[in-house]
Description:
Elements: E1 24-25, E2 28-29, H1 51-60, E3 67-70, E4 85-89, E5 93-98, E6 101-107, H2 116-119, E7 121-123, E8 132-139, E9 142-150, E10 157-162, E11 166-168, E12 174-182, E13 195-201, E14 204-210, E15 224-226, E16 231-238, E17 244-252, E18 255-265
Parallel strand pairs: 11-18
Antiparallel strand pairs: 1-2, 3-4, 4-7, 5-6, 5-8, 8-9, 10-12, 12-16, 13-15, 13-17, 14-16, 17-18
Amino acid sequence: xVCGEFVxxxxxxxxxxxxxxxxxxxxxxLQCTTARSSYFGIVDLAGLPKDRYYLYRSHWAPDKTTIxxxxxxxxxxxxxxxxxxxVYTNGDSAELFLNGKSLGLKTKQPDSDNAMDRxxxxxxxxxxxxxxxxxxxxxDDKKIGEAxxxxxxxxxxxxxxxxxxxxxxxxxxxxxVTVELTDAQGTLCxxxxxxxxxxxxxxxxxxxxxxxxxxxLEPFQADFRRLFYGKAVLILRSVQDQAGTITVTAHSxxxxxxxxxxxxxxxxx
Length: 269
């Protein structure tokens, strides 16, 4: 007997942009441009995890602590209206707080006829107010951790995070730099779509840029990219046989620039 699970797909990919390949859905005109990539992936075209990534992780990696709150908490003009909140966790239950007030403890229901309740925790009647959402998760009645989602202020600064700080001068080694726009306190601005321009000094070149937006028609090879939900990715490639310090600077009009350094090391031959 063999049992398994298959998901289509792990990553978004170019082509098959269902359901946005046409100008209408169910006879209704779209208020957007045609997409160029699929929407099915657990991870987007830029390699950034989507919300569902954490749902699968909580299910497939039960020994790893996962506590993920969605959606973001910047809903200007929606004060006093309902915004459902979900939590993906490897725990059995979680208690949700909004600005310090408990919104109740929810527990997974593995035998439920509703698949939504087997793997995720749902608070469907949350009345939106800006501030802080906090989820405290439990497993076997023991606290395993907590996660916080805050309302971001005005965009103020660019944050750069490299997947590693050293690459080899082989000419084909890569470094992935995540680009985020945050407020002055470092909270991600989830609605930011600012145009970011990049400058690279040292022994590396820009191998590619992306933001995960299926509707973006910007080039993958460029020194600029517009943010999508506050994020983008820059990919650096080393230059063969050229070692040294690589400095990446990201600029956007009216925003504090972000800078990061990566070292390219020589290869023994």
